[in-house]
Structure formats: C-alpha cells, structure tokens
C-alpha cells in the first residue's frame, strides 16, 4: 500500500513549494535572519530579533 504514502509525500512537497513561493513575495523581512513575512512583526517569529523591514520594490 505504498500509493497513499507516495500521495501524502507529494502533498507535503506541494505545500512546501507553496509556502516557499509565498515567502519570496512577502513584503516584510527580518534583517537578522532573512525570514520573510506577509505582515509586519515587532519581533521576528523565527529568531526573535527586534524589527522587521518593509521591502518596497
Ligand atoms: Zn529573524
């Protein structure tokens, strides 16, 4: 019954790709660790550094 296991793996990969694409377009970034966010944070949820910067292109 490896079919379901393979399907699950593909779904996980799809979700990971979608999250990566979203992060690449996120308008805010932590200068300390480079994590990207859809919304501004007082502290980086990833590394805890203060301040995130808005990326205006
Ligand atoms: Zn950070």
How far apart are the termini? 49 Å
**What structural class do helix, strand and pairing data support?**
alpha+beta
Helix content range:
40-55%
Low-confidence stretches: none
β-sheet strand percentage = 5-15%
- Discrete helix count: 1
- In terms of quaternary structure, the protein is single chain
Report the sheet with the most strands, covering strand number, pairing sense and barrel closure: 3 strands, antiparallel
Small molecules in complex: zinc ion
Quick check: average pLDDT? 86
Protein name: Small CPxCG-related zinc finger protein
Write the layout of secondary structure elements.
Layout: H1 2-24, E1 28-30, E2 36-37, E3 52-54
Antiparallel strand pairs: 1-2, 1-3
Bound molecules: zinc ion.
Q: Short description, anyone?
A:
Helices cover 40% and strands 14% of the residues. By secondary structure, it is an alpha+beta fold.
Overview of this protein structure:
- It comes from Candidatus Halobonum tyrrellensis G22.
- This is Small CPxCG-related zinc finger protein.
- This protein has 57 residues and is an alpha+beta fold.
- The chain has one domain (2-54).
- The chain has one helix and three strands, in the order αβββ.
- The protein has one helix at residues 2-24, and strands spanning 28-30, 36-37, 52-54.
- Strands 2-1-3 form a three-stranded antiparallel β-sheet, with no helix packed on it.
- Strand 1 (28-30) and strand 2 (36-37) form a beta hairpin.
- The mean pLDDT is 86.
- Zinc ion binds at residues 30, 32-33, 35, 44, 46-47, 49.
């Amino acid at each position: 019954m490896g079919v379901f296991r393979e399907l699950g793996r593909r779904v996980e990969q799809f979700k990971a790709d979608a999250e990566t694409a979203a992060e690449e377009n996120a308008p805010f970034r932590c200068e300390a660790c480079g994590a990207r966010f859809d919304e501004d944070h007082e502290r980086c949820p990833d590394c805890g550094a203060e301040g995130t910067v808005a990326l205006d292109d």
